[in-house]
Design a protein that fits this description.
With 262 residues, the protein is an alpha/beta fold.
């Protein structure tokens, strides 16, 4: 295959990834279209065309947040690879500059397939923003088993307590001063900052942030490859598992009917 064709495909994939993919994910996308090449070769072509992933650039550190001292256990206990959808959802907030002032984004992630199932953006780091993100989840909230967060005061509020009680969530809190207890959402926020917030810089208005955030989350869920999901997107993974479940259901029913007839 001519190098020009390979270079063209690499540039296309990099652009469609919003300048986020490195050699590993570009290699996986090339494989989808029947092109096999080494990561070293991909890296050489990226360097030739100055295709620098957002992950290579400097990343700012997030400041500390206040915490609460509720006597609530860490039910999740760093068991991040859960076997069922909505067995555990995790949440946290991160900051973003809007028209020169700090605003906040709240994400809610299903540990099972790393899908951002709920999100909201607002001017204040409050329980109301968390509540809005929960309300944005397009799935049946009764499916959620465990709701895990850190000890930020935005999660310590009657508004959140009422939602937890209404839908029967099991509450789980990270241990005080232990961000690794909520490592998946910390990682997701890091991805959000690197791939979405930093490339856009200072958003001109909260409305602009909300529109672009919706667009990014849609891309993240439907298009972005995840290494932990064997290089498919969260929605692709969900659909694949649903197809397997449907096939197993049909097979089980066919065996049941066959047994009856026999």
């Amino acid at each position: 295959m001519p190098d020009l064709k390979l270079e063209s495909e690499i540039k296309r994939i990099f652009k469609e990834s919003r300048s986020n993919y490195g050699t590993r994910k570009i290699q996986a996308k090339l494989k989808e279209i029947g092109i096999t090449t080494s990561r070293r070769k991909i890296g050489e072509i990226m360097a030739k065309h100055n295709l620098v992933s957002n992950y290579i650039k400097h990343r700012p550190k997030q400041g500390r947040t206040k915490c609460n001292d509720d006597n609530c256990p860490n039910v999740l206990n760093r068991e991040f690879n859960r076997g069922n959808s909505f067995d555990v959802v995790v949440s946290d907030l991160t900051y973003v500059k809007v028209a020169g002032t700090w605003n906040y984004i709240c994400l809610i992630v299903d540990l099972w397939n790393r899908e951002i199932v709920g999100f909201a953006a607002g001017g204040n780091k409050t329980a109301e923003l968390v509540y809005e993100a929960i309300g944005a989840i397009p799935y049946n909230l009764n499916r959620i088993n465990i709701f895990h967060t850190d000890r930020g005061n935005e999660f310590k509020n009657k508004l959140i307590d009422d939602v937890i009680l209404k839908y029967g969530f099991t509450r789980s809190l990270s241990n005080k001063g232990t961000p690794l207890d909520n490592a998946v959402i910390e990682s997701t926020n890091h991805i959000l900052k690197t791939e979405f917030i930093k490339p856009h810089g200072n958003f001109s208005s909260l409305e602009e942030l909300k529109i672009l955030l919706w667009d990014y989350v849609h891309w993240y869920n439907y298009e972005r490859l995840h290494g932990s999901l064997n290089y498919v997107s969260p929605i692709q993974y969900r659909r694949q598992c649903e197809q397997v479940a449907d096939a197993n259901f049909v097979y089980a029913n066919s065996l049941k009917n066959c047994t009856k007839k026999c």
